[in-house]
């Protein structure tokens, strides 16, 4: 699904190396988690994969379903099946949630050569998916994320993911700022989307999210590269002992 080889990335304005040779392969239908201390490069990896400006790739490659991600505009990456859920979803005043969702869905369908959804088809689909995420009709009518609580913003983002049906979903610290109930709702929404043709990369500091979204593989990132890989037990080791012992082994 996603294959990253020897990825090196610098900050454009500061000429500072952030990623220093990341290697990562995520198979179709699998959930991989990346954990690591602050400043290790976790969020930078998500930004570079999604095409955020301000970063320069100096070496390496990133392919999604055999296509070169790094050679695509952000819109093309989204149409190819990549979705990034932000740590802090942005507010878009003046743009209705329903308008935003329908425009995004149909733009991606058009880019893939598929028929656009009619108003009736879209309305039926969004209502079904919103209900499963406990998003009421009032939220759908409001401007995107304006006046939403942290939990509502994250649920709204999972609704976007459910509507867009991406192949590769990247969740960048999506548990940030969520209480236990909101995290369970968001996690349930993510788990409902798990299938053999869709993969996830979950970036988090904490084991608590991985109690709800069970990963197949856990990676530890430090100093711009992945330094250790294991099963779900690796996240428990971090939760119990911190990163010091692991980093002492590998750095």
TrEMBL record:
Q: Which UniProt keywords apply?
A: ATP-binding, Nucleotide-binding
Q: Does the keyword field hold Nucleotide-binding?
A: yes
Pfam (any one):
ABC_tran
Nucleotide-binding as a keyword?
yes
Entry-linked InterPro entries: AAA+_ATPase (IPR003593), ABC_transporter-like_ATP-bd (IPR003439), ABC_transporter-like_CS (IPR017871), FeS-cluster_ATPase_SufC (IPR010230), P-loop_NTPase (IPR027417)
MF terms (GO), sorted A to Z = ATP binding; ATP hydrolysis activity
Question: Which NCBIfam families would you find in this protein's record?
Answer: sufC
**Family classification:** Belongs to the ABC transporter superfamily. Ycf16 family.
Q: What is the official name of this protein in its record?
A: Putative ATP-dependent transporter SufC
The organism of origin for this protein: Pseudooceanicola algae
């Amino acid at each position: 699904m996603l294959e990253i080889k020897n990825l090196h990335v610098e900050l454009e304005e500061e000429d500072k190396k952030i990623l220093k040779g990341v290697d990562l392969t995520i198979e179709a239908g699998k959930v991989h988690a990346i954990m690591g201390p602050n400043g290790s490069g976790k969020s930078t990896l998500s930004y570079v994969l999604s095409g955020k400006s301000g970063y320069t790739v100096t070496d390496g490659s990133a392919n999604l379903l055999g296509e070169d991600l790094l050679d695509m505009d952000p819109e093309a990456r989204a149409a190819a099946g990549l979705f990034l859920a932000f740590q802090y979803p942005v507010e878009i005043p003046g743009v209705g949630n329903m308008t935003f969702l329908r425009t995004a869905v149909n733009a991606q369908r058009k880019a893939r050569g598929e028929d656009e959804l009619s108003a009736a088809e879209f309305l039926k689909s969004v209502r079904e998916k919103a209900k499963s995420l406990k998003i009421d009709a009032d939220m759908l009518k409001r401007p995107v994320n304006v006046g939403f609580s942290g939990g509502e913003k994250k649920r709204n983002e999972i609704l976007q993911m459910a509507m867009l049906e991406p192949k590769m979903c990247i969740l960048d610290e999506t548990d940030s700022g969520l209480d236990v109930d909101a995290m369970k709702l968001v996690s349930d929404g993510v788990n409902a989307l798990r299938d053999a043709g869709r993969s996830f990369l979950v970036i988090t500091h904490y084991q608590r999210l991985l109690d709800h979204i069970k990963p197949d593989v856990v990676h530890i990132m430090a100093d711009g590269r992945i330094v250790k890989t294991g099963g779900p037990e690796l996240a428990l080791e971090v939760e119990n002992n911190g990163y010091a012992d692991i980093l002492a082994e590998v750095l």
